[in-house]
Amino acid sequence: MKIDLTCPVELWHFKLPTEEYPVVSLNLFNLSDKAVVSLQAALLSFDRDDMQYARQVERVNGLDGQPRSAFEVLIATDDGHLASRMDFIIEKVWFIDGTVWRRGTGEMSEYRSNRLEPSRQLDLLHQMAGPDVQGYPSDQGAVWVCLCGRPNPASAGECMRCTRDKHAQFTGFNKAAIETLIYKRDSELEEKAQAARLEAGRMQEEREQKEIRRKKRIRRSILAFVILALLAAGTWGTINYGIPAWNYYQAEQSLTNNQFDVAKEQFLALEDYRDAAEMAKEADYRKAERFLNNGNVTAMKSAEDLFAALGSYRDSKAQFQSARYRRGELVLQSGDYEQAVQIFDSLEGYDDSADRSLSARYDWAKSLMDARDYELAREKLLALGAYRDANTLAEDCLYLPALNHLENKEYAQAEALFLQLPERQTAQLKLQETYYGWGDLLFTSQQFEEAADKFLKAGDYLDAFRRASDCLYEPAVQMLSQGEFEKAKSYFDQILAYRDSAQLSARASYEMGKKAVEAGDYEGAKAHFELAGETEGAKEQLQAVNYHLGTQALNKGELALAGELFSLAAGYEDAQALADKARFDQGVLLSNQKDYAGAIAAFEQIPDYRGVEDALQSARYQQAIQLLDQGLNDQAIQAFTALGDYGQSRDYLNKAVYQMAQAHLDKKEYEQAAGLFEGLGTYLDARDKFFEARHAMALEALNNNQLQAAIDLLADIRAYGNAEELYTGAVYTLAGQKETEGDLGEAARLYALIPEYRDAGTKSQGNYAAYFETAYAAAQEGVKNKDWKAVITALQDLDMENTGETYKDIPEMYRDAIYRYAEELYSDKKPYEALVYYRMIPDYKDVTTRKLDRTPYQIIGSWRSQRGAEFIFRDDGTCLIEGKEMYYFARQYLLQVGDRPDELNINYNIVYLRENALSIRHMKTDMLYKCERFDEGA
Question: Which of 15, 388, 646, 805 sits 20 to 30 Å CA-CA off 844?
Answer without folding.
Answer: 805
